């Protein structure tokens, strides 16, 4: 009698799950992807000869010797090695894209500032010519700090490519749709999504639906990472599976082309005869990624008071001082407000960190008027701020039943370094001269009477 059990019959998944064709889920995963079958070597990185006559090349996003849990690199298998994608460099000027340190002696950065949306220009602007620096912080040469930008893009880059050796770019669209055709694949991006383009990655930006406007945080320092959740545990806030990295895509196209390089705060151009987006297959953990902000699961107080705004951190870029970020990216999205006997909007405060905010859509609860979609505000290091009179009186007298804060999505780029305004931010952008007056009407209520509220 045969006592051997019959093998179980397993049912195999037929196709990827979910609506994200063309992307792989995960944050910082070790991905592998190939646009042609057999293009990716298996079991090794550097075969004597790569399939299809491809060149093997490593892109290192961290030092070779970075600790294992921080080490990031990607192996690319490409039509030409990257040394063919640059030639001699010539300096060019992109006068609106500034890098720290950039301290204009004619500009006062000490103040509470707010801007209306920067309007689009009459002339066509690309990702490069349409970048408008609002603030800079730290020092690009020592790789600390950041810059904040507004982009105004109406024209696609044609046979033109870019990479920043200075920074990774966190992109927050507010209007229009853009395509980022990168060496490692294609990211399509729309409002309520964000993307991170790593330092050194070559790409081209096309307008899918214009005009396009949004915000950019240029991170000179260590890469953005997910914050530790502490006692919150393994779930909520930004979940790893909701980050999407594109599958491999390449173009084999010969055409006179320009590559622009941002390096040590300066811009350079080099001419080549083909597209540098020629990576047929790759594997590794240094790659572009996008994330849908609508998948962010906010955590908050469920009885009284509310936690510090850091409870809404989506991504954090460390500074080397534990718990003190080079940059935190913080999201204020729709959520339930349920705290009892509590002043529910953000409280009045002064902060050692410098807070730059942008409105993606809707109404922000601490400023019901004046902070509009596409607009920005800056509350610099140790400058007090908080709700305006309308918000204060409303929240102080509100019926505190459970209330859903709807039609709202704003964010903050918060850095440990003071943010310096550019001349564009101070003189050309639509600065609201009367912003500081939003606190003028706040009354002194104290008259020494106990029990008065
Ligand atoms: Fe604040």
Automatic annotation (TrEMBL):
List compositional bias (Polar residues) regions by residue number.
1-14
Q: Where is the Homogentisate 1,2-dioxygenase C-terminal domain?
A: 295-446
> Where is the catalytic site?
306
Q: Which Gene Ontology terms cover its molecular function?
A: homogentisate 1,2-dioxygenase activity; metal ion binding
Q: Which branch of life, at top level? A: Bacteria
Xref: Pfam families: HgmA_C (PF04209), HgmA_N (PF20510)
GO biological process terms, semicolon-separated: L-phenylalanine catabolic process; L-tyrosine catabolic process
Q: Where does homogentisate bind?
A: 364, 385
Q: Which InterPro entries match?
A: HgmA_C, HgmA_N, Homogentis_dOase, RmlC-like_jellyroll, RmlC_Cupin_sf
Annotated spans, Disordered: 1-37
* EC code: 1.13.11.5
Q: What is one cellular component GO term in this UniProt entry?
A: cytoplasm
Q: Which residues bind Fe cation?
A: 349, 355, 385
* This protein's record includes keyword Oxidoreductase: yes
| Keywords of the record | Dioxygenase, Iron, Metal-binding, Oxidoreductase, Phenylalanine catabolism, Tyrosine catabolism
- Looking at the record, the residues that make up the Homogentisate 1,2-dioxygenase N-terminal domain are 23-293
Cofactor(s) listed in the protein's UniProt record: Fe cation
Q: Which family does it belong to?
A: Belongs to the homogentisate dioxygenase family.
Per its record, how is this protein called by name? Homogentisate 1,2-dioxygenase
UniProt lineage: Bacteria, Pseudomonadati, Pseudomonadota, Alphaproteobacteria, Rhodobacterales
